[in-house]
Design a protein that fits this description.
The protein is α+β, with helices and mostly antiparallel strands. It is about 55% helix and about 20% strand. The protein contains three helices and three strands. Helix 3 links the parallel strand 2 and strand 3.
Length: about 110
Amino acid sequence: MEHYKVKYFNKLAAVFLAILMASLLGCASTSTKEGTGEYIDNAVITAKVKAAIFDEPTLKSAEINVETFKGVVQLSGFVGSQANIDKAVEIARQVNGVKSVKNDMQLK
């Protein structure tokens, strides 16, 4: 009887392990999709960049859109001057966790 209990336990453990592995692999990132941890990290980076831009009195934060994918920050929108574009890029680069900044901002 003990032998059957061990076999049952081993099968149950194997099923549990398979489910665990499948769920972990489902959260893994690819070149076009973020993993769960990366998504959270990128959301934090985006929030920090937006806050830094908002804190800069010379910039109108409503004009600048911020998106982050795998640590690369993309800035877009229509701004009033080249100086504002340069300042926004400089601010974004200084935020901890930013790997690079892609500038898609345009002059009004």
